Fold each of these.
Amino acid sequence: MTQEMQIALEAARKLAPEERAELAELLFDTIEHGPEIDAAWRDEADLRYQNHQQSGQVALDAFDAVDEARRRLRAKP
C-alpha cells in the first residue's frame, strides 16, 4: 500500500459508518466497469431474480432485511 493510500485509509476510518459507506460507493463509481462487467452483473441479477421467483419465498425490502439480521445477531448468546 502506498503512503498516499495509507493516509486516505486512516482519514476514511475516522468517518462515521454511513460516510464510509458513501465514500466506498463514490470510489467504486470511479472505476471503469466496461460493458462486459455490466453484462455479467445483469446476468447475475437476472439469475438471482429467477431463483427467487422459483423459490416462492417472500422478499423483504432492504431495511426490513437489515433489521431482521440485527435482531438475529442480538439474539445470539
Note: The chain has four helices and no strands.
Amino acid sequence: MASTKTGSLGRTGVVASDCMQVIPRIDGESGSSYSYRVLYYNILMLYMPPGSWIRESAIAQKLGLSRTPVHEAVALLNDRHLVDVAPQSATHVSCIDISMLRQGCFLRSSIEPLVFKQVAGSISNEYRTALSKNLEAQREIPAGNRPEDEYLYLDNIFHRLVYQAAGKDFIWEQLRRASAPYDRVRYMGLLFGYDHPSIEDHEFLFRYLTLGGIPDEEVLDLIHAHLARYVSFFDRLATDFPEYFVFDEEQPDPISSEEPMSLIV
C-alpha cells in the first residue's frame, strides 16, 4: 500500500523571484551553472522558502539570462528534490521530505567515518595546509548579518577537502545530491537560532587527520554526533514550521526515540 504523506503541501503565495538574492557570476561560468548556483543558494538559505512559486521567465530576467539556462537549472534542482515540477502546472520550491532527510544523514554518517579513517595520520601537506586555512577562516567569521552563510560554506569546504584528500571527489558530489534536505535543515537550525556555529568538532577532526592516534570509536562517535546535530532541535523546528515539511506516516517519527542514532537510520 502506498505510504500516506502528511504535512503542509500548500503554497506560500510567495513569488521566488521577488525575494531572490542575486550573487555575482564567476568568470567563465555558464548560464545554467550560474542559474543553478543562485537558485540553490537561495533555496538553502531560505530566501526562497518552501512552497514559493518559481517563474522561470522572471528569474531569467533578474539574472540577465535567457529562459533556457534557468530551465536547465530547475531540472537539476528537481532531480535533487529541491523543487517540485508538475507538468502543465506551476513549479514550486519543495517542502522538506523527512524520509529523504533521514536517508541523507544516514548515508553521510555511514560513509564519512571511512573517508576520514583512510587519510588520518597520512594526509598530504597540501591538504593539511588547506584545512588549516579553512579552520582559521572559521575562527574569523565576523558576527553580524547572517554569519551562518559563511559558516555553512566553510563547513562544506572542510568536509569536501577531506573527501578530495582521500580521492573520493565523486562520492562527495553524490552525497551532496542525496543530502540536500539534510543541508536545508542544518541551515534552518542556525538561521532560527536552534543551533549555533561551532568549530570545536572540526578542530578535533583536524587533529585526527593530521596526527592520527585517536581511537576509531571516539572519532566515529564524534562524526555521527557532528552530522546529526539537527536531532537536538528538529522537534522544535518541525513544531514551529510544520508548513516546511512533509512527513511519511509509514516511517518512524524522526524525533520519537531518546536514542540519537535512531534518528538518522
Note: Confidence is low (pLDDT under 50) at residues 1-10, 251-265.
Amino acid sequence: MDGRIQRKVSDYLSTAFGVRHLDTITTAGLIRHVAADTSQTASLLDNVEASMKGHGSNMIAVVAHHDCAGNPVSDRVQKQEVANAMTRLAETYPGAGVIGLWLNEQWIVERIRTG
C-alpha cells in the first residue's frame, strides 16, 4: 500500500525478471494477512487467484518494508512473515515462482530467501 515502495519494487521486478506489467495487490500490513489467517486472508488470496487465472501471472512477489505503519512489528518479525507467506503461496500455487522482497531503511530492495 505504501507509495514509498511502489516504484522501487516495480523497477526491481522489471529489471530482474523482465516483467513489463504488474498486477499489484495491496493492503496495509498485507504480509501478516497472508502469513497467518486473518479476516482479510481469503479476499487477498482471491485477488492472487484472479491475477493467476485471469491474467496469466506466473510469479508472485511478497513484499515488505522497514517502517511499515500497517504492520508495526520489528524488521525481523516482518521478514519471518514474508518467509511464511512465501511458503503458503508456493504451496497454494505450485506452478508459480514465489520470491520475497524487503525494502530496508535506505529503501533498497533486498531478496529474502527461505530455508
Note: The chain has a mean pLDDT of 92.
Amino acid sequence: MMNTVRKSENLLPFPVISAAANGDTTAMCAILKHYEGYIAKLCTRTLKDDAGNTYSYVDEEMRNRLQVRLITRTLAFHVGYNYRIPLFHIVIVRYIYMRMLPNLLL
C-alpha cells in the first residue's frame, strides 16, 4: 500500500500555487525551486568526445525553456478547479510531445 504521508510531503501547498497563479513572485520562485531538480534531470544530456569519454551536462537552453513554460502555465492556471494531476507533469508531457511530434511526422 502506498504511503500517503510521504506522497503529500512532496506536493506544493495549494496557497502557494494559488498565489503564484495570481502573480506573486515569491510563490513563483517557490514553485521554480520545488521543480528545480526535476527540470535539471529532464535537461541532462550525455556527450561523448573523440576519445570515447562520456560527460553529462545540463542543457541550459532547455532548462530555460522549461522554466518559462512552467511560469506561463502557472500564470494561466485557473484556481478553483480541483486538479489531481500535478501541474508541471502536464506541462512536461506536453512539451516532450511537441518536441517529438516533428520527428514522428518524418
Note: The radius of gyration is 17 Å.
